[in-house]
Amino acid sequence: MAVSSFQCPTIFSSSSISGFQCRSDPDLVGSPVGGSSRRRVNATAGISSSFTGDGGLSSRILRFPPNFVRQLSIKARRNCSNIGVAQIVAAKWSNNPSSGLPSAAAAAAAASSASAVSSAASAAAASSAAAAPVAAAPPVVVLKSVDEEVVVAKEGIREKIGSVQLTDSKHSFLSSDGSLTVHAGERLGRGIVTDAITTPVVNTSAYFFKKTAELIDFKEKRSVSFEYGRYGNPTTVVLEEKISALEGAESTLVMASGMCASTVMLLALVPAGGHIVTTTDCYRKTRIFMENFLPKLGITVTVIDPADIAGLEAAVNEFKVSLFFTESPTNPFLRCVDIELVSEICHKRGTLVCIDGTFATPLNQKALALGADLVVHSATKYIGGHNDVLAGCICGSLKLVSEIRNLHHVLGGTLNPNAAYLIIRGMKTLHLRVQQQNSTAFRMAEILEAHPKVSHVYYPGLPSHPEHELAKRQMTGFGGVVSFEIDGDIETTIKFVDSLKIPYIAPSFGGCESIVDQPAIMSYWDLPQEERLKYGIKDNLVRFSFGVEDFEDVKADILQALEAI
């Protein structure tokens, strides 16, 4: 990211740092670093700076670009959401000529970080030039310990920027989710120094320190670094910020898969001997983890129908429930949970609410705004959208996501930066894809419901769906998946599926290509029929994920396949 136009003061000697001229960025010129205007804390800002001349430190101060405050936020330091160029230590440098030199520790910390900054910034410099001293005294940025707040002072007025999420003025010019999918996390404040429109892929397994003093600064919380690839990556941070903007989340953590996100979240937030509540209809692997693994930790589970509000109230009153975890819509019957109501019930008892919104997408449903504490997505599906990458994410408050992140750093399951790039690229068309998929699925659901060879259709956009009115209240679109039952046995259903020409027979959903499967075979074939029926999985059930193909082509293909049976 280019830096704002500013004069680079004479701070370090030319013998230690090569000089260059700071380059201006028209998008950032005039943005203040401090003052009374409130802005959202963002962990992804990158900076570039220059240092020239051989003057003393007295009366000189590094004038930081507008995004520097965000780099020193608690969010950045606690989550290591920066790159090496953020290892500058802003240590109470005086802008008063009479105040003399800063402390030796501050000078040493600044000097130890300067070479990393010089390396990144020189790539962005237009030419080498000596810089003039700063005429007007800029704000002072004070970095305290890791658990303290960052305080920005300007003309004696201090503004606290801490754990409270501030107004997001950064994206105020983006009025729709469609624009956020394209620009959030990238357009104004990307933690990578580059002029490239697209976000670069940073392939590294570790991050180095120039001197031992830098390492000690990092270990003693005076500077920030990813340190190791399992703890963070600049490309991955861009993805996290983009998803946070869409979900309205304070923080987002991305992982190697959706199941990784769900399981690490459960392990991090539910104590040994704890209790959770979930719903009958859900992804089978999630149910297996809850029923087979969590009991080894003494964790018990209550399973209720998605619409069983009385059952939820009974559970939270009877047990000390740590978490209510459900999908909405659910897999594969697309049941919907009243997120606002269950959040109200759970929060009265101190129970957290986590919604798996994979089937909804952040465009069709804002679970956090409805009261949920956390949202989980399999980013493999709609968010990635191209059937070419595995990923998962957790969105929510900084406090909760940080708890999960700490365990994630121990367990691993790190998303490869190349995969992060594919998802960033995929998200730029998310709104276009979801619009098409919503439309095709809704129109086909109506056609299928009226077809004599289809016995039942499950889709929240249909009035026949048990939670249709609820879906209309809490969703802006009903998604691109339709489940339905063929009027026939398993052989008839197989013939229908095999007669289709456009969709692939495969697991997963949400991609550009249409996908079809029979859950009885794809997900439950290891169970006998009577066991499958306990979960409502009939042999004639079909789950159809609509891609972005032309509606008329998909319609003709489905109708000809129905005629074939």
Automatic annotation (TrEMBL):
One GO CC term, this protein: chloroplast
Enzyme Commission designation: 2.5.1.160
Catalytic reactions of this protein: O-succinyl-L-homoserine + L-cysteine = L,L-cystathionine + succinate + H(+); O-phospho-L-homoserine + L-cysteine = L,L-cystathionine + phosphate
PROSITE patterns per the UniProt record, alphabetical: CYS_MET_METAB_PP
An annotated GO BP: transsulfuration
CC cofactor: pyridoxal 5'-phosphate
GO molecular-function terms, A-Z: cystathionine gamma-synthase activity; pyridoxal phosphate binding
Signal sequence extent: none
Protein keywords: Amino-acid biosynthesis, Methionine biosynthesis, Pyridoxal phosphate
Domain of life: Eukaryota
Associated pathway: Amino-acid biosynthesis; L-methionine biosynthesis via de novo pathway; L-cystathionine from O-succinyl-L-homoserine: step 1/1
Keyword Protein transport recorded: no
Similarity comment text for this entry: Belongs to the trans-sulfuration enzymes family.
Name of the protein: plant cystathionine gamma-synthase
